[in-house]
Design a protein that fits this description.
Strand content: 5-15%
Protein name: Polysaccharide deacetylase family protein
Distance between the termini: 32 Å
CATH class of the largest domain: Alpha Beta
GO molecular function: hydrolase activity, acting on carbon-nitrogen (but not peptide) bonds
Pfam families: Polysacc_deac_1
Radius of gyration: 32 Å
Helix content: 40-55%
Order of helices and strands: HHHHHEEHEHHEHHEEEEHHE
Number of helices: 12
InterPro entries: Glyco_hydro/deAcase_b/a-brl, NODB_dom, Polysacc_deacetylase_ArnD
Organism: Streptomyces corynorhini
Number of strands: 9
CATH superfamily of the largest domain: Glycoside hydrolase/deacetylase
Length: about 350
């Protein structure tokens, strides 16, 4: 693709006019009459040669049949390209310089997109300064056209899963190539309006896993969150230790919250996070019965003053899921914006952008 664009650009430059070679400039000093006579003779020879070699074009501007396809290597890299370089004509298969113009259009689009990204980052830098971030968050790459396949993390499988059950996977990271991590917030206890403004202005994506017992005093706060592009997922009705409940007890905690969130916010959650990260076979089976497609846990937990790691190397990796909670001064002696400032510094310092979990799962 790169070679084609280079040739097309050369063709388009030729179409606008090429510099006269030095040897031609030296011949330009000869008498005009002799030059015109010789020019007619040369033109006659060239016309005969063109007809004989099959290089003439049809009235439509397409190359006449020459015994080889127009798109063959010889046609594209031989006569057509040579004309584009030496005589200022389009390459073979590109009548009227259309390919050159197309190449220019692609280059222009890429340049325009790059300029838009730079402008967006410049605007984001202003907002980051306003909110007291140490660094501007890195731009989030485009999500994949096809979502990666999510499987159980090794050691997190259900021991007695039967063949064909197809239980939703339990995972702590998403298989990605980009240097992205995913920010998730649990329960919904603290409802800080500054968090909504901050995350919206900074364009930082995150996912909220909600428990009804702490959000039922202000459902409207999370509706505002949803309206700003945040996906609301399931964290049970009452945040109980699920393995201590019967199958039916677990199902009530999970599925009744599915119903409540769907009724309240118009969309049924597809992800479920068990309280404390604890689960058993009944948990996963119950979740499957009411539409859960995956159980994302986490690799690190963010606090205003530290990061607690679940991995032995105490570091971030592409696709890691970061947990934090809706808390405030009563629990942390810090605000939710304080938490975001600290977490984003760690994430950005390590060269990661924050992506939206649902774009990958």
């Amino acid at each position: 693709m790169q070679l084609v664009r280079q040739n097309e650009e050369m063709a388009s430059k030729g179409a606008r006019g090429t510099e006269v070679p030095a040897a031609s400039r030296e011949r330009a000093g000869r008498p005009a009459r002799r030059r015109r006579g010789r020019g007619r003779a040369v033109l006659a020879v060239l016309l005969v040669a063109a007809v004989g070699s099959g290089c003439a074009t049809t009235e439509s501007g397409e190359p006449a049949a020459s015994g080889k396809p127009a798109g063959s290597a010889d046609a594209g890299q031989g006569h057509g390209q040579r004309q584009g370089r030496d005589q200022g004509h389009p390459a073979a298969g590109a009548p009227n310089g259309q390919h050159g113009q197309h190449g220019k259009g692609e280059a222009g689009a890429l340049s325009s997109n790059a300029e838009a990204v730079r402008a967006a980052q410049a605007a984001r830098a202003v907002v980051a300064k306003k909110w007291g971030l140490a660094k501007t968050p890195l731009p989030t790459p485009a999500p994949p056209a096809v979502k990666p396949k999510i499987t159980n993390r090794e050691g997190f499988e259900i021991a007695n899963e039967e063949e064909g059950e197809n239980l939703p996977p339990v995972f702590t990271t998403v298989p990605v190539k980009d240097r992205v991590v995913f920010l998730t917030m649990d329960d919904g206890m603290e409802k800080d309006p500054e968090l909504l403004r901050m995350m919206t202005e900074l364009k930082i994506p995150y996912t909220a896993f909600l428990s009804d017992y702490v959000i039922n005093d202000n459902y409207g706060y999370f509706k505002q969150m949803q309206d700003r592009g945040v996906t609301l997922q399931n964290h049970t009705l009452n945040h109980k230790y699920l393995p201590g409940l019967s199958y039916e007890g677990q199902r009530r905690e999970i599925c009744d919250q599915q119903d409540k969130l769907e009724k309240r916010y118009g969309k049924r959650p597809t992800l479920f996070r068990p309280p404390y990260g604890n689960y058993n076979g009944d948990t996963v089976r119950a979740a499957k019965t009411c539409g859960v497609k995956g159980l994302p846990l986490w690799t690190a937990e963010a606090y205003p003053d530290r990061m607690e790691w679940r991995e032995w190397d105490k570091d971030l990796h592409p696709g890691d899921i970061i947990l934090t909670h809706f808390r405030g001064r009563d629990d942390w002696n810090a605000t939710m914006p304080d938490l975001i400032r600290a977490a984003m510094k760690r994430i950005t310092d390590k060269g990661y952008a924050v992506a939206r979990l649902e774009d990958y799962v």
